[in-house]
Predict the structure.
Amino acid sequence: IADHVAVSLGRIVAGFAAGAALGITIAIAAGWYRTFGNFVRPGIELLRPIPPLAWIPMAIVWFGLGEPSKVFVIFLGAFFPVLTNAYRGITSVDPTLVRAAQTMDVTGLALLGRVMLPAALPDIAVGLRVGWGLSFGVLVAAELIAADRGMGFMIMNARQTAEVGVIIFGILLIGLVTLATDWVLGLAIRRTVGRWHAV
């Protein structure tokens, strides 16, 4: 069981970290540079409603049956929630804060780093929490791709042998691991974002 949990968590952490990093980066760039935002938003709005599970065939074509295809599906589960919330945070910063900073000669990247990013942190934090939860949501589907270990594999393997008890245990195990890790993530967010905001 510990091995299945460890393997699944490794895949989730890898996919979530990549999705969160890219999502926040694109959101900041799109919110700060309006031309770039106008360029990428149509593509994002086109791809965002597509469920990550629909990408499984393409993941197999692009990455084969190894670990990258599983991580890619989890990456998609995290990417769009993080991107959407981070973008909303960057673009909804109170203009009064921006003008107040500008009166004190805070401009350019200093304005972004010292005013806009701290103000957007609550929305970014929400995106991280949602993205983390959705990463677990696509875990079982991701581990359908020729996996031989993992919590999702454990459930699907038990289905083939009609071991209902193992299936139920696997489902509850995913829920417990999600709950525990989300609590840890929430605690980390409160200790960082909480320096500027009450979350």
Q: What stands out?
A: The mean pLDDT is 85. The radius of gyration is 19 Å. The longest helix spans residues 2-32. Residues 143 and 193 are 33 Å apart (CA to CA).
